[in-house]
Design goal:
The chain has two domains: about 1-40, no CATH class; about 55-180, Cytochrome c/b562 (Four Helix Bundle (Hemerythrin (Met), subunit A), Up-down Bundle), CATH 1.20.120. It is built from eight helices and two strands. The protein has helices spanning about 10-15, 20-25, 30-40, 55-85, 90-105, 125-130, 130-155, 160-180, and strands at about 1-5, 10. Strands 1-2 form a two-stranded antiparallel ribbon. Helix 4 packs antiparallel against helix 8 and helix 5 (about 90-105) runs antiparallel to helix 7 (about 130-155).
Amino acid sequence: MELAAGLRLVSPAIRQTGAHAMSMRKAPFGFAAGLIAALVGVTGGGGWEARAQEPSRAEQLIKYRQSIYRVLNGNFAPLAAMATGKAPFDAEAAAMRAERVAYLAAMLDEAYPADSQAGAPTRVKPEIWANRAEFDGLLEDMQSKTAELAKVAGGGDQAAITAAFGAAGKSCKACHDKFRKE
C-alpha cells in the first residue's frame, strides 16, 4: 500500500480499478484500520511513544536568555539606525523602543543562573561564571545606561537620544568584548 494525496491509502491494484471508492464506502473501519496500520509502519511502529524529549532546565534557561537578547536587539537595532542617520528620526518610535530596551535589560538579572552554563549552543564564554562580580558590574552598567536612554528618549531630543544611545551601546560592547564568543 502507498500513501496517496489526501492521506488515502490505496493499493496499486485498487487504484487501477477504481474500486477503492466503493470499498471505502462499504468498509469505513477497514479504511481506518489500514490508515492506522500504514502510520504505524511509516513510523517504525514506535510513533506513539517517539515524542520529542523535553528540553533540560539548562536548555530552557539558555533559550530564555537568547530570547531576551533577540527581542532586545530587535528594538536596539532601529534605535541604532536612527542614531546613525540610516533611518529617519522618529521621536515616538525612539521612546517606545528605548523603553522596551530598558525593560528587557532589567530582565537579564535572572538570565544567567549558574545552571545555564551549558546545555544548548550559546555564545556565552565560561568566564562569566569565573568572573561573576565583573560580569554583574558590566550588566548593572548596561542596565543603568539603557534606563537613562529610556528616560532621555521620553523627551524627544534627537541629540540627547543619540548621545544616550552611544553610552548604552558602549556598555553593551564592553560586556560582549569580555564575555561573548564571536
